[in-house]
């Protein structure tokens, strides 16, 4: 730590604010917020951090600047703006969705309503972005069906209209436009349409329907039935649209929902906007993590960005993350049951599906990056010291204490390497002793690898609980491999992960890729072991009677069985037929044996 940094830390206030870290070139490399600037900044320099990137960041800090604000929320807002402005190297990166379409209400006389992918700061009102183009076009078609708006780009100023500079087009003649260009429609009437369209785009369809019904009833009472019927048609279109909206609950009104799922490098944050009981907007953003940030650090930044982007003013936020201290002016709800819990689960599913889709794309486009991410996840979840590029899994198999065998399956880069699979026949253990069998095969496997100077795996997985794991550990210790190979056991019933010396198991998230890889290995070992065991039992069962004949071994017995299909047919065959398959001398032994049996 430099003297400049040390002196600045001493003089930091214990107030809310933001801090900026600079490197030797005077470049901002990190921006953070704090409820207490002195405590937060000091925490970076008092100890080594678990995350390597944080240690690298600290080593590069040569200067600190800060700004005091009134509240932690003010600090969050300022942090968000500064990160967007400077994009420091070690801050999370919110991947921008500029290519998504928006619905624009143009800032002009007789505003047009259209979709665009460019946001121009000219006072126009933008709604979106829409992840689903279908949803956006459905809204535009609805607006076109209900409201006769102009689509031309003429400059309809009062002076130009008064000077009769324009003539009506085909849209006017077919009833899609009421002719504001020639003064046939008043500005007040047109702007009333625009206000209703804004309500619809914000999700307030119910209030628009209610207003239209009031006007329809008024016209009907004045005996203006034709005009009232036009309003009735509009109401039916809006009600049909509203009935197809994603209604979650009529009791939930004007709330935001936000949730997060993450892998080693990215977080995926889903944001839902709820109004009048319906989901009117849904959006998922990808956040590139830089310093292994926690959800309570990511969610606030994304929430501020989303609310700013959508112009949202909801007073309640439904989330699974504790952010109440930051947003004291809002109601933060962490539901445990009921409709709001269901809504939060919907948001979580959206985030998860988005993440899985990204993983699938990554696997197709960049398989090396996909593999690296899975290995990083395994390393973190299993508390390993290095990436488990080479993993092996062992399973025992026996039938009523007989024909004991074992299987070893090998995964490289988290994928099966079937050419490296190995079978073991148990040699030194009598009876059904799984612990002793595991001890034997682990010793044989790694003794041979040491003798042959083969590359050892980074991780060995034992299919079984504490007993099996302890047995395997004996052989690992005997070979002097403790600390050189990581060893874990997986118990089938509850998918518990056991570590040597730990009596309490570890539970990995059932949805995690780490557990899926471990389960895949365990299932492969079981399948491979059962196949070998079945083949051995089959050979023993079928060949027993034939191999009892003196001079006839397993190979000859197999040849006969492959040709005749059963011992019964061999017994019924003539000496000549048998000799054709295995030769005269062995054929005579078999024929004589079955002749004695017949007599």
Explain the overall architecture.
The protein has 599 residues and is α+β, with helices and mostly antiparallel strands. It has five domains: 3-91, 3-Layer(aba) Sandwich (GIY-YIG endonuclease); 102-203, no CATH class; 255-363, Nucleotidyltransferase, domain 5 (2-Layer Sandwich); 379-535, Nucleotidyltransferase, domain 5; 548-598, 5' to 3' exonuclease, C-terminal subdomain (DNA polymerase, domain 1, Orthogonal Bundle), CATH 1.10.150. Helices cover 46% and strands 19% of the residues. It contains 20 helices and 21 strands. Strands 14, 15, 16, 17, 18, 19, 20 and 21 form an eight-stranded mixed β-sheet that branches. Strands 4, 8, 9, 10, 11, 12 and 13 form a seven-stranded mixed β-sheet that branches. A three-stranded antiparallel β-sheet has the order 2-1-3. A hairpin with a 2-residue loop joins strand 10 and strand 11 (278-288). Helix 19 packs antiparallel against helix 20 (584-598).
Give short descriptive properties of this protein:
21 strands; alpha+beta; flat; Nucleotidyltransferase, domain 5; GIY-YIG endonuclease; 5 domains; 7-stranded mixed beta sheet; 19% strand; 599 residues
**What structural class do helix, strand and pairing data support?**
alpha+beta
Q: How many strands, what sense, and barrel or not for the largest sheet? A: 8 strands, mixed
Beta content comes to: 15-25%
CATH topology of the largest domain: Nucleotidyltransferase, domain 5
Q: What overall form do the CA principal axes indicate?
A: flat
Overall pLDDT confidence: 83
Number of strands: 21
CATH superfamily of the largest domain: UvrC, RNAse H endonuclease domain
CA-atom Rg in angstroms: 37 Å
User: Do you know the CATH architecture of the largest domain?
Assistant: 2-Layer Sandwich
Counting H and I runs of at least 4 residues, what is the number of helices? 20
Number of domains: 5
Q: What proportion of the residues is helical, as a percent range?
A: 40-55%
At the first level of CATH, the class of the largest domain is Alpha Beta
- C-alpha termini separation: 99 Å
Query: What are the segments in which pLDDT stays under 50 over at least 5 consecutive residues?
Result: none
């Amino acid at each position: 730590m430099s003297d400049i940094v040390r002196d600045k830390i001493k003089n930091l206030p214990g107030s809310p604010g933001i801090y900026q870290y600079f490197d030797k070139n005077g470049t901002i490399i990190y921006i953070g917020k704090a409820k207490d600037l002195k405590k937060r900044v000091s925490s970076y320099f008092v100890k080594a951090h678990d995350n390597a990137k944080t240690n690298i960041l600290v080593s590069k800090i040569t200067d600190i600047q800060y700004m005091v604000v009134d509240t932690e929320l003010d600090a969050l807002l300022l942090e968000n703006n500064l990160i967007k402005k400077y994009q420091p190297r070690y801050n999370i990166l919110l991947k921008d969705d500029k290519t998504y379409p928006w619905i624009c209400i143009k800032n002009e006389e007789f505003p047009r309503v259209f979709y665009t992918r460019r946001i121009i700061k000219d006072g126009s009102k933008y709604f979106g972005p829409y992840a689903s183009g279908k949803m956006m076009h459905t809204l535009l078609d609805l607006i076109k069906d209900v409201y006769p708006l102009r689509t031309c780009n003429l400059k309809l100023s009062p002076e130009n209209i008064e000077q009769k500079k324009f003539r009506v087009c085909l849209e006017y003649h077919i009833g899609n436009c009421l002719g504001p260009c020639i003064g046939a429609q008043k500005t007040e009437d047109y702007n009333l349409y625009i206000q209703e369209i804004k309500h619809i785009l914000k999700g307030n369809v119910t209030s628009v329907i209610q207003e239209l019904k009031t006007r329809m009833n008024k016209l009907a009472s004045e005996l203006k039935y034709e005009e009232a019927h036009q309003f009735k048609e509009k109401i039916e279109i809006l009600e049909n649209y509203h009935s197809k909206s994603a209604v979650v609950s009529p009791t939930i009104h004007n709330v935001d929902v936000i949730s997060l799922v993450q892998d080693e490098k990215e977080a995926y944050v889903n944001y839902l906007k709820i109004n009048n009981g319906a989901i009117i907007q849904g959006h998922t953003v990808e956040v590139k993590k830089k310093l292994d940030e926690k959800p309570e650090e990511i969610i606030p930044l994304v929430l501020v960005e989303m609310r700013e982007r959508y112009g949202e003013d909801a007073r309640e936020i439904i989330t699974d993350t504790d952010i109440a201290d930051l947003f004291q002016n809002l109601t933060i709800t962490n539901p445990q049951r009921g409709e709001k819990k269901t809504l939060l689960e919907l948001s979580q599913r959206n985030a998860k599906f988005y993440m899985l889709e990204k993983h699938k794309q990554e696997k197709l486009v960049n398989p090396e990056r996909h593999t690296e991410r899975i290995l990083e996840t395994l390393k973190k979840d299993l508390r390993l010291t290095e990436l488990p590029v080479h993993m092996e899994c062992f399973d025992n198999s026996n039938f009523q204490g007989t024909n004991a065998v074992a299987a070893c399956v090998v995964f490289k880069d988290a994928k099966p390497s079937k050419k490296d699979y190995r079978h073991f026949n148990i040699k030194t253990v009598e009876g059904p002793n799984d612990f002793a069998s595991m001890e034997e095969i682990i010793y044989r496997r790694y003794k041979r690898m040491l003798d042959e100077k083969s590359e050892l795996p980074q991780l060995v997985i034992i299919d079984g609980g504490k007993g099996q794991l302890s047995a395997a550990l004996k052989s690992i210790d005997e070979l002097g491999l403790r600390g050189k190979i990581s060893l874990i056991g997986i118990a089938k019933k509850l998918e518990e992960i056991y570590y040597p010396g730990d009596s309490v198991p570890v539970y990995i998230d059932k949805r995690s890729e780490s557990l899926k890889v471990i389960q895949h290995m365990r299932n492969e070992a079981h399948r491979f072991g059962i196949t070998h065991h079945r083949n051995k039992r089959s050979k023993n069962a079928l060949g027993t009677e034939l191999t009892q004949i003196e001079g006839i071994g397993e190979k000859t017995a197999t040849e006969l069985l492959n040709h005749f299909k059963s011992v019964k047919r061999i017994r019924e065959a003539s000496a000549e037929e048998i000799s054709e398959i295995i030769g005269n001398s062995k054929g005579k032994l078999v024929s004589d044996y079955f002749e004695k049996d017949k007599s």
